[in-house]
Design brief:
- This protein has 2 helices and 8 strands.
- With 153 residues, the chain is mainly β.
- It is globular.
Length: 153
């Protein structure tokens, strides 16, 4: 079984409380236009008119050449952590990059590719069956933005 995981609550709360992002900058405060602003913590779209944060996030525990940093959206107010065994709401595009990483948090070459959204669970299951794959990232197929992490349950 799979677990779709948001960014950890303690990290989301730090950003929401005014903590600096992965570049040492304060998150930008914006108002959602409702046009597809996926919160990486509740794993839902931020509704039109609601406050949101735009910030640089690095979903890795250590600095190393494969520790990509990029922009994410986050609800400005504390939200409940999303996730679980089902595809979350934020995966609303037609396709995403699905990529495997080793326990050292480095990309495992040959595991990444663009996958139709409905096939994400099957592809993640295939990747996580490989002993060298510790976790999987789902990223935007157009801009490579981090969406969420998938692990074995």
């Amino acid at each position: 079984m799979l677990r779709f995981l948001p960014i950890p609550t303690e990290i989301a709360r730090a950003y929401q409380a005014g903590g600096v992002d992965s570049y040492g900058l304060l998150p930008e405060r914006k108002i959602s236009d409702g046009g597809g602003n996926p919160c990486r913590h509740c794993l839902r779209m931020i509704p039109e008119g609601k406050g949101m944060l735009v910030l640089a996030h690095r979903p890795f525990g250590t600095l190393q050449p494969y520790a990509e940093t990029g922009p994410i959206f986050l609800c400005a107010d504390p939200c409940d952590a999303g996730g679980g065994p089902e595809l979350p709401e934020i995966l609303s595009s037609s396709e995403y990059i699905v990529r495997g990483y080793g326990a050292d948090e480095r990309i495992l070459y040959g595991t990444g590719g663009v996958v139709e959204t409905g096939r994400i669970p099957a592809r993640a299951t295939e990747l996580l069956a490989m002993p060298e794959v510790a976790f999987v990232h789902v990223r935007s197929a157009r801009n490579n933005c981090f969406q969420l992490r998938i692990e074995r349950d």
